[in-house]
Amino acid sequence: MILQFPTQKIPIQEIPVDKKLKLFIKREDLVHPQISGNKYWKLFFNINNYLAQNPVKPYIITFGGAFSNHIAAVSAVGNLAGIPALGIIRGEELKDKWRENPTLVFARKNGMNLQFVTREEYRYKEKLTEFLQKEFQNALIIPEGGTNEVAVEGVKMMLNNETKDFDYLCTAVGTGGTISGISKFCEENQKVIGFKAVMDNSLEETIGKLTPRKNFNLIDSSIGGYGKIKDENIRFINDFKMNYGIPLEPIYTGKMMQKVFEMIEEGYFPENSKILCFHTGGLQGIEGANLLLEKQNRNLIR
Ligand SMILES: *Cc1c(COP(=O)(O)O)cnc(C)c1O
């Protein structure tokens, strides 16, 4: 097995709040130094099963944007396992500029080949997947964000005896795989809240196909849209790190935690609630975000 069950315990840290409830964060970002958070678990069975069945000439192909945590994670898996990997990257303009993007530099250093496609071509990635699967019959083709049914099984590993105690389980939502796994495998009495980092009206339907349960609620926390960064959120992220020693990133976890704080303030959670937020990782994205912020003469994430 190239991806192993972690030998270290994943800590659950308390975030003190001055309300009559308890807030905790599970540091799934610490699961692996290069393969971050939920992406580790979404890849776990996809990669391990594939390599068990295709030991000869394995090849991985996947999709993502220029700052994608999933691209970073898959490239690291490729490097770790010594498997060639291809990343289909959205944005043809990056062809000559990828060296300015820390995520893509990381992917290249891991040996990932990058193929840049136009936004138009990227939109038809299902068609592209079909074509690639014919061309490379043995290849493992992982969809954008790593979300599929096998990924959902891996997310189960984020839950354990310790997470059973909580009334609310919170996670950021991108393509919906992570929340689907939490919804599918959590306890009967637990409520799941998904903080949408992207305004995508088809998410409910996507998640509905991956979990049989209706125990989840989706809340918009896209704050200005997917990948958009507000100064207020940067301030929140910097304060959060200073106060609790936990780094967040500006695409998913920073937006989720800011929204959770707001909801606590507004009395969304009943008294004595125990709330658990999953830190899904993605800290590799901070460097790229800071480069953009620097160009715009704005405050940086520290
Ligand atoms: C990809 C990602 C998510 C979203 O997970 P989905 O399974 O795509 O919904 C959340 N947080 C971080 C840090 C991520 O990298």
Automatic annotation (TrEMBL):
Cofactors required: pyridoxal 5'-phosphate
Q: Report the domain of life of the source organism.
A: Bacteria
InterPro entries named among the record's database cross-references = ACCD_DCysDesulf, TrpB-like_PALP, TrpB-like_PALP_sf
Question: Which GO MF terms does the UniProt record name?
Answer: D-cysteine desulfhydrase activity
> Which ranges does the record mark as transmembrane?
none
Q: Where's the Tryptophan synthase beta chain-like PALP domain?
A: 6-281
Report whether Chaperone shows up as a keyword of the record. Answer: no
Keyword presence, Membrane: no
Q: Where is the active site?
A: 68 (nucleophile)
Q: Which PANTHER family does the UniProt record give?
A: 1-AMINOCYCLOPROPANE-1-CARBOXYLATE DEAMINASE-RELATED (PTHR43780:SF2)
Q: Which family does it belong to?
A: Belongs to the ACC deaminase/D-cysteine desulfhydrase family.
Q: What is this protein called?
A: Pyridoxal-phosphate dependent enzyme
Species of the source: Chryseobacterium shandongense
